[in-house]
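It is worth pausing here to work through a concrete case rather than discussing structure prediction in the abstract. The textbook approach is simple: state the sequence, then state the predicted structure, then interpret. We follow exactly that order.
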Amino acid sequence: MAIHPSALIDKRAEIGKNNEIGPNVIIEGPAQIGDNNIIEAGVFIRGKSIIGNDNHFYSYAVIGQDPQDVSFKGGATTTVIGNGNTLREFVTIHRSTNEDGVTTIGNNNYLMISSHVAHDCVIGSGNYIVNGTVLGGYVTVGDNVFVSGLSGIHQFTRIGSYVMIGGISKIVQDIPPYMIADGIPASIKGVNVIGLRRNGFSPDRRMLLKRAYKQLYRSGASIKSSIVELKNMLEDAENAEQSADLQMLLDFIQSSKRGIILKAPKEGVRKATEI
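Step two, the predicted structure:
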């Protein structure tokens, strides 16, 4: 383990094996850091931060800082970061507001320069969050999502797995899995076909998800009617993978509290909460 002599490490911190800790790093409080992490110059890790293995923290990333929440009253709140993540320069991740909450980052995510993950966010695995993107408090992001630069994600919003979000987008409602969203405010532009191909979705799976998209966004039917049709598609699915894809889409839509983003049909605007 290589620790630069200028690093300041709290006696309460637990540091694993084979970590590289650079100049002027500050690890304050009862942090737990696993093995084989690279922590570059000027990184600040604070409080009850629990970090796994094989992560790379670039210079001046800030982990576990106080939440930007006026209801925060202090306390040993938590940040958890998994394995194999890359956090570039000036990334900020704030810990949870309440002691029973956790700000969570999964595995193999790539957070680019100056992106921000607010308190109580839950980020899955395999995601790319590009420069300057802001995730408000309590945002949930699934797996294998690509959020382009300078996008703003409103608090309590959910982003489904395999979603692609265009640059400088304003997200104020939930984005169903597999979709492309873009704009201010964002609307759904289509199925994230390229992302699905890259993640190994076969042509038959992609075709069925295109059918689901057309039902939701091109048929002009209400959300309630579209859910019925999606359930019919689920019953007719040809294999387990197709069934799992449609089930995830249905579960996401039916559990939405903010409503899903809908692209308005030509004849008028549908309400996102029309379930």
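Step three, interpretation. The chain is about 20% helix and 25% strand. Residues 2-138 form a domain with the UDP N-Acetylglucosamine Acyltransferase; domain 1 fold (CATH 2.160.10.10).
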